[in-house]
Specification:
The structure holds 2 protein chains of 2 kinds. Chain A is an alpha/beta fold. Chain B is an alpha+beta fold. Chain B is globular. Classes of the chains: A alpha/beta, B alpha+beta.
């Protein structure tokens, strides 16, 4: 099931394996607003109104429950279906579309009532407000589960299963049709296929990409699929799961060893001032969980600090924890760019990104760039972010003049992936090392070279400093060996540090089991521990093994996967309660009674010798608190969470909300249109269309083409690719085209309150209007690859999109927004309506804390 | 299966060399165009310009040319549903001024109708599938057994290699352009600047080094397969049978496995698996080299040559004479 993704076009190399699976009998379903190349290769294409996936998936959840098609043994024992919930909890069905704990004045939830029965949710509301979603959702941090009760008959009205059933009871095929435009027959075809391919003998998989991640309710959209997969027993088993197809090569890697503002390596959360993470003890107090895997939390953070600060990190000085930067609020991309627009950001490093084209509300992004003092851009080509000061639409129109833009731009040429050694981490967490094929040309250098030599210069600059604030720079360990004429740092030395080592001997650890919280080990990213086991770069291995042997397709010696070279997470769920495979066909990991240990084709994701019949007593802690039949060892209760008592900021269950901009009101919850907890960045220069605004009756979505790559830096600079997709275009249906007098191949203009852009019309039956609750809704699809530099220039789709944010991850609603179209070219500059923005209004100085930035939901006009 | 080259051809001979070719299986093509880019990169061919709408849907380069030796065609076969047509007709009859009424159920196919009309149940997935086909086909030089281009070449620039492929030597080509109309498939093009011809070499230089051609190497789904021609024909025949088993009855080979009288240009060194009639891809249902047309059947050719001035007309005449018995994939076009 491919939904929220366009795999054949955007991930053509990975799609090879989908085609192979098809040859072996797999059935492929593609749910997508447009009929793209993926749809053609699928067995079934189901057109959907953009942004309504929760209604569709919620309908499938209801269907699976009502027809009793769920995998009962799996659901009862491996998920939290049987767990009883707190009395105080109220569902969206009780409160007209919001959960208990909602504060309409702030748009935020107090999650105190979302817990399990009698369970103390250790995180205060304040902590939750800024809790790092990715961290605490995985952990159940702060939960005391000592007295939680279960009803294995799933009949208790307060158990998760019954709540789930009530919650989705109105998501009928009729409602799905009226919201999504998916007919009952198509709905049933999908439901039947999913059910037929789940259970003991078969498994089904979901693949998604940015068609799910880029919504104001993105996290809950993916959660809906997770609930469905848990109900069907498709998690932790071969051929199951939910595959997140990432936006670039190694985006998975850059999440693991993160470039995200709110994470430290290995999904440890950034310390935060408002939660009082001023000492290591306070920080560990929030992150460490008494039960389950995160009971090892202290070993990971202390080892990380030892890797960074070396001998200077001691027990007495909290291993240098006090010198880590602490978050003061939302410092996501949009918050930072708005602060820049207000004069509050002096400068910025842009690496592997092109915000002048690739980020939402691009006209606003460019005006923010123009207010900085300096900007370092590292790229393989002179991308728009580096040239905005001389050729952006605002400069071309005369609104901004190069001589008055104060931003000094430093363009640093970057090596391409074949010109440097390093790793790619893919969606399966497989880390594949690649050697350098040739030297980069001219002054181009690898990211590693750049950061290494920059760090050396910074350290040299501060070497003599005795100021307390310079401690982390002075004491930062930075001793990577250099090689060759370019003085390229040794990649394997970095990998060794990431892997972790024994501080006394310097020898690499074999796994994170060897990491300690007493300063005796150092580790740059605990989840990657083992990648340099035995001093060998395991990610460089390329032995597929005998793939025809039973289980041979796991190929454990092809590169290395985190954690612990494990190819499928939670794979204990591939065996039944007694540890036997659910079926011979789906045999993967099992309990070997003779050897008294878990074994199988993959590395078991379970304590190796914990018997399947081990029952955790009420007073047990750490991994001892996980029973032998609880496969989800990262969760405090060892269960897959149908209901999320902790970690999400917009509710413990997914609920259907319309996109923030929608042509129709919310049919299921008439009092709530969009996600009530979404971040809105309300500012005059960020207008959002009201629901049903007759000026903007069309739904727009953005997509990628095979022929171009993201914002175009690597493709609009290559003649061979440019000729394959020479111009910006928009896909529209023949009926809409006829209505507006738009001709195939002719010019058309797409209009929102943010911008108006022009594109060639691609009039095609491949995108068809949908009937939604008696009304015909037209959708248009826009590739977002074009900008104003390169061999092929064209208007930027992202100029049309407002800033908005999923409350958990601050990502925008750009796969579903409203617009209008007309025939012909645009009348004036694309973002003329933003003229003067950034030069007036709210201002902050770079050295000043901006209280408004901490609360992007607040109105600021 | 492989046919020896006629004696008249300029050929490289090497003991033990096999006929090599491409099997392009359009049923697994994802339209990514990696083959086009890999071909241009390896052969150092320039981007030769494109224009929005030059071809269908995502095809903006239009055709093979002197500097485009692989080209992915796109075919959109999306018909409005019968119900939509009926509704449109009703609207027109009612004087709605040509505007289409609201589109029926999602996808344009009225599944209720489909389901009700099919006694004993209808596969809804199949019905939805019928809302359209978007077909991709990576086109390339056929390396014909009877190669019209080679026959027409007066300079010896076009030669037959030991792999039974047809390769153009640009340093010998004088730019006369005779090969261009001699190719029944419109493969060969001329450089707009110097007039010299250009086309696929089946990566002759890579073959010399034991490498597979660049396009096949880059194809992520193995839609382009390279190998000994005999083996490819076997693989392809099995593939057709498999698709027939799966209910894709329209699958057939274009350019291989035909009876001798139906062979395209004596059989193609690089052949295709297609699922739609050849014309849908802009391909001729029948093709022979001009020499063949002039020789076989000799009487017809002789009479025709006496009566008609242009070779092209002869081809047209011969095609018309034979079209009636042309069948492919079990269907008669």
């Amino acid at each position: 099931m491919i939904e929220g993704g366009n795999m054949a076009e955007a991930h053509p190399v990975g799609f090879r394996w989908v085609m192979k699976a098809k040859e072996r009998g797999a059935r492929v379903i593609h749910v997508d607003p447009r009929y793209g190349r993926t749809s053609q290769l699928a067995d079934l294409h189901v057109p959907i109104r953009a942004g309504t996936d929760v209604a569709f998936l919620g309908g499938l959840i209801r269907h699976v429950i009502e027809t009793e098609s769920y995998f009962r043994e799996y659901v009862v024992s491996y998920t939290n279906a049987s767990t009883l919930l707190c009395d105080a909890f109220r569902d969206t069905e009780d409160l007209d579309g919001v959960f208990s704990g909602f504060d309409a004045s702030t748009g935020r939830y107090d999650p105190a009532s979302w817990g399990y029965e009698d369970c103390v949710v250790g995180l205060s509301a304040g902590v939750h407000e800024h809790a790092t979603q990715a961290f605490s959702e995985h952990t159940g941090a702060g939960m005391d589960l000592g007295s939680v009760r279960h009803d294995d008959t799933l009949q208790d009205p307060r158990c998760v299963f019954q709540l789930l059933r009530r919650h989705f009871s109105r998501y009928t095929p009729d409602i799905v049709e009226r919201i999504c435009g998916i007919s009952r027959e198509q709905f049933m075809a999908v439901a039947d296929a999913l059910i037929a391919n789940s259970g003991r003998e078969r498994t089904g998989m979901f693949c998604y990409a940015n068609g799910w991640t880029q919504h104001s309710g993105a996290v809950q959209m993916i959660r809906t699929a997770a609930i469905l997969q848990l109900l069907l027993g498709n998690v932790g088993r071969p051929g199951g799961g939910i595959m997140a197809m990432r936006g670039h090569a190694s985006i998975q890697g850059s999440t693991d060893i993160p470039t995200l503002y709110d994470l430290l390596p290995g999904y440890l959360h950034m310390p935060r001032t408002r939660e009082g993470h001023f000492t290591l003890k306070e920080y560990i107090g929030v992150g460490k969980v008494d039960r389950g895997w995160w009971s090892h939390f202290d070993a990971y953070i202390v080892s990380l600090l030892k890797a960074w600060f070396g001998e200077a990190a001691t027990k007495e000085n909290d291993y240098g924890f006090g010198w880590l930067p602490k978050l003061t609020g939302n410092h996501s991309h949009f918050s930072t760019m708005l602060r820049a627009l207000d004069g509050g950001v002096d400068g910025m490093f842009v690496m592997g990104q092109n915000p002048a084209v690739g980020s939402q509300h691009s006209g606003l992004q460019r005006r923010a760039l123009a207010r900085m003092k300096w900007l370092v851009v590292r790229d393989m080509a002179e991308i728009e972010t580096a040239t905005f000061w001389r050729d952006s639409p605002e400069v071309q129109s005369g609104e901004l003049r190069p001589e008055t833009i104060q931003t000094e731009v430093f363009l640093m040429p970057a090596a391409s992936h074949i010109e440097k050694a390093g790793t790619f981490t893919n969606t399966q967490r497989l880390v594949q090392f690649r050697d350098k094929a040739l030297d980069p040309p001219g002054d181009a250098r690898s990211e590693l070279w750049f950061m290494h030599h920059l760090a050396k210069r910074v350290k040299a600059h501060y070497a003599e400093s005795e100021r307390r604030r310079d401690w982390p720079i002075v004491n930062l360990t930075w001793d990577y060996p250099e090689e060759g004429a370019m003085r390229e740092p040794d990649v394997e030395a970095v990998i060794k540090e990431i892997n972790g080592y024994d501080v006394a001997t310097g020898s690499p650890v074999a796994s994170f089991d060897e990491l300690r919280g007493d300063g005796s080990t150092a580790c740059g990213c605990w989840i990657y521990s083992g990648i340099y086991k035995d001093g060998v770069n395991q990610a460089r291995r390329r032995d597929p093994g005998d793939i025809s042997a039973p289980g041979g397709i796991v190929s454990p010696e092809w590169a290395w996967a985190w954690p612990a070279n494990r190819r499928i997470l939670y794979n204990r769920a591939s065996a039944d309660l007694e540890g036997k495979p659910w079926s011979e066909r789906k045999r993967y990991v099992w309990w070997d009674e003779a050897q008294e240990k878990w074994t199988g084709y993959d590395v078991p994701d379970f304590p190796a010798t914990k018997r399947p019949d081990y029952t955790a007593g009420p007073d047990t802690t750490g991994m001892d608190a996980i029973s032998g039949s609880d496969p989800f060892i990262m969760m405090a209760d060892g269960r897959g969470w149908l209901f999320s008592p902790s970690g999400l900021l917009d509710g413990p269950l997914p609920t259907f909300y319309e996109p923030l901009e929608s042509p129709v009101p919310n049919l299921l919850y008439p009092k709530v249109d969009g996600n009530p907890a979404a971040i809105r960045w309300r500012r005059p220069e960020n207008p959002v269309h009201a629901t049903g605004d007759p000026q903007y009756p069309l739904v727009a979505t953005t997509f990628r083409l095979t022929e171009h790559h993201t914002a175009g830096g690597m493709s609009r600079t290559v003649p061979w690719l440019v000729e394959l997709q020479p111009e910006m275009f928009a896909e529209i249906d023949p009926q809409l085209a006829a209505d507006r007098g738009i001709e195939d191949g002719g010019w058309m203009t797409i209009v929102t309150e943010r911008a108006e852009i022009e594109a060639r019309a691609k009039v095609t039956e491949r995108i068809r209007p949908l009937r939604v609750d008696g009304r015909v809704i037209h959708q248009i699809a826009l590739p977002w690859h074009w900008g104003y530099s390169g061999l092929s220039v064209g208007d930027t789709a992202n100029e049309l999109v407002a800033l908005s944010g999923d409350p958990n991850v601050s990502i925008q609603d750009d796969k579903a927004f409203t617009c209008d179209v007309r025939a012909g070219r645009r009348y004036g500059p694309s973002t003329a309506r933003l003229a003067g923005v950034g030069l007036t209004g709210h201002h902050v100085r770079p050295d000043e804390d901006d209280p408004l930035a901490e609360n992007p939901q607040e109105h600021r006009s | 299966m492989s046919t020896s080259a006629p004696d008249t051809e300029i050929a490289i001979h090497r003991a033990g060399a096999q006929r090599m070719g491409f099997f392009t299986d359009t049923s697994v093509c994802i339209g990514c165009k990696a083959c086009e880019v890999a071909c241009k990169q390896w052969n150092d061919l320039p981007a030769d310009g494109s224009q929005t709408g030059k071809g269908v849907s995502y095809d903006h380069t239009g055709d093979l040319s002197a500097s485009t030796w692989r080209h992915v065609r796109f075919v959109e076969l999306f018909e409005p549903s019968p119900q939509l047509r009926e509704e449109a007709q009703r609207a027109l009859d009612a004087g709605a001024g040509g505007r289409l009424p609201a589109i029926p159920a999602a996808g344009g196919v009225d599944l209720v109708d489909v389901a009700q009309s099919g006694a004993g149940g209808v596969d809804v997935a199949d019905a939805v599938r019928k809302m359209g086909e978007w077909v991709f086909m990576s086109d390339v030089c056929r390396h014909c057994t009877n190669a019209g281009c080679l026959d027409a070449c007066p300079t010896g620039a076009l030669i037959r290699t030991e792999h039974q492929t047809v390769v153009l030597q640009p340093d010998v080509c004088n730019g006369c352009g005779y090969c261009v109309p001699a190719c029944p498939f419109g493969v060969v093009g001329r450089d707009p600047d110097d007039g010299r011809a250009g086309k696929c070499t089946l990566c002759y230089d890579r073959l010399e080094d034991g490498l597979e051609p660049a396009c096949a190497k880059s194809c992520p789904t193995d839609s382009i397969q390279f190998g000994p021609h005999d083996e490819l024909v076997e693989i392809a025949s099995r593939r057709v049978a498999k698709l027939h088993e799966r209910g894709i009855e329209g699958a057939y080979l274009y350019g291989a496995g035909d009876e001798p009288e139906d062979e395209l240009a004596g059989g193609l060194g690089s052949f295709f698996l297609l699922t739609e009639p050849p014309e849908r891809y802009g391909l001729p249902a029948h093709a022979d080299s001009p020499v063949q047309e002039n020789v076989v059947p000799a009487t017809v050719a002789a009479v025709a040559a006496g009566l008609l001035a242009s070779a092209g007309t002869v081809v047209a005449f011969a095609v018309a004479a034979r079209r009636g018995r042309r069948t492919r994939g079990g269907r008669t076009w």
